[in-house]
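Deliverable D2.4 — example input (structure tokens):
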């Protein structure tokens, strides 16, 4: 039935969607409680850890079932098309996710800062922030004793530029890996995938070093005002997505070593490649609006 284009394979009943919903609800509740009790001895952190572990368990179990079904040739052309559509909608949802944060940054820079500076007819700093200077990035806060502003900003050259080159290079290397698999050159495919993963890991290491430098040397923290908040919000969520992408690349690489992909059947690689290209494009926008402009 799987090879008959007139039929659509319907998987057996599964508890995975219900378990995933429970794990995500646990993660959300744990994260909310942890952020509201940060610094106390409240055990909410364990609830967050339990939720994250639950998500990982369900993902591993669920993907394992899908891989086994594909190897059993149960997934016909219609099922594989549903995989493509599902991944496309997932990436679209991620685009909207980052759009919200970029829009928040643009709103702050283009409207809120000017209004506080009494630009136009809007009431501004005379009531809200005496002595406010309309400039970006904001280096001072209304209460500098409680919330001191950053001493310096992170320049666009240095680590940000190196990370940009790393991600751009990784987009090229994963494309080459895909081409090598299409040519059935498995060893070359594995090597290029390993190189792509290595570039992603180096990116994360450098970003971690940048965060440590910002906190310890520059005074740039989540409590250093709107600039610090937007900086870590955008770059932090992007770093999380790079981590997710690196996990996907690791799984693809391990599956490649296990001989799971063929030149005509390798959607797992394609999905990871699409996601990785998306992460790279988001970084280009981040590099421009956060570090340069």
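Example output (designed residues):
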């Amino acid at each position: 039935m799987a090879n008959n284009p007139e039929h659509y394979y319907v998987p057996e009943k599964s508890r995975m969607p219900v378990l995933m919903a429970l794990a995500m609800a646990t993660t959300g509740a744990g994260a909310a409680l942890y952020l509201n009790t940060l610094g106390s001895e409240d055990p909410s952190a364990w609830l967050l850890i339990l939720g994250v572990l639950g998500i990982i368990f369900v993902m591993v179990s669920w993907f394992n079932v899908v891989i086994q079904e594909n190897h059993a040739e149960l997934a016909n052309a219609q099922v594989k098309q549903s995989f493509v559509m599902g991944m496309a909608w997932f990436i679209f949802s991620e685009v909207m996710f980052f759009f919200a944060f970029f829009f928040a940054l643009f709103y702050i820079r283009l409207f809120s800062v000017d209004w506080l500076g009494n630009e136009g007819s809007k009431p501004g700093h005379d009531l809200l922030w005496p002595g406010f200077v309309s400039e970006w990035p904001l280096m001072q806060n209304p209460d500098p004793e409680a919330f001191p502003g950053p001493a310096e900003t992170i320049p666009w050259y240095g680590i940000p530029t190196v990370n940009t080159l790393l991600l751009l290079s990784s987009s090229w290397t994963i494309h080459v890996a895909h081409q090598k698999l299409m040519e059935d050159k498995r060893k070359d495919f594995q090597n290029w995938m390993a190189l792509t993963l290595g570039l992603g890991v180096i990116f994360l290491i450098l970003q971690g070093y940048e965060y440590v430098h910002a906190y310890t040397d520059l005074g740039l923290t989540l409590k250093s005002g709107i600039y610090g908040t937007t900086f870590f919000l955008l770059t932090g969520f992007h770093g999380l997505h790079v981590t997710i992408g690196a996990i996907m690349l690791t799984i693809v690489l391990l599956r490649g070593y296990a001989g799971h992909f063929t030149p005509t059947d390798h959607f797992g690689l394609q999905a990871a490649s699409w996601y990785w290209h998306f992460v790279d494009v988001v970084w280009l926008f981040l590099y421009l609006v956060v570090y340069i402009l």
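DSSP finds eight helices and no strands in the chain.
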